[in-house]
Design brief:
mainly alpha; elongated; about 160 residues
Length: about 160
């Protein structure tokens, strides 16, 4: 495929024909085997736009740490349930919308520190308490985090490790 320079003048129609004055952006050399976009007389070498990986193989997956929004949301959710309060009650006390608090608890929204502080105070906690609990859960050994999300759902579920 030969790439040609595009006329950027305000009078360009977008239908420029490839003439001898059109500069070639591909390197000169023998044509690559196979069909070429430059026609049967082809003359340019085809340079792939995306190079292929040298060795195709499995890509190592980094260890997945829980997201902070999931941890904080689960902490707020657990605390609200422990106090036997409704979403509406806590949302009204925090002066945030019912739907936003719901999404916050499910880990769907990344809340600002002001919103987190308001939700924490509505539950009788300090922001430092909520963030301290989240930090403690992040500091647990790799592979064990009590807050996980089910692949198809929004409900958190507890993860238990049994001793061997």
């Amino acid at each position: 495929m030969t790439i040609r320079a595009r006329d950027t003048s305000p009078y360009a129609t977008g239908h420029r024909t490839a003439g001898p004055s059109a500069p070639r952006l591909s390197a000169p050399g023998p044509a690559a085997p196979g069909p070429s976009a430059s026609g049967p007389a082809g003359g340019g070498r085809v340079i792939p736009l995306r190079p292929f990986p040298a060795t195709p193989g499995p890509v190592p997956q980094p260890s997945r740490e829980p997201l902070l929004r999931d941890l904080v949301g689960a902490i707020l959710h657990r605390e609200r349930l422990a106090q036997r309060r409704t979403l509406k009650d806590v949302a009204d006390a925090a002066r945030i919308s019912f739907g936003y608090l719901s999404e916050l608890e499910r880990g769907r929204k990344e809340a600002s520190s002001e919103v987190l502080a308001a939700a924490s105070q509505a539950l009788g906690l300090r922001l430092a308490d909520v963030l301290g609990r989240a930090a403690a859960e992040l500091a647990r050994p790799a592979g064990f985090h009590p807050v996980t999300r089910s692949p198809g759902g929004d409900a958190p579920r507890a993860q238990v490790r049994l001793a061997a």
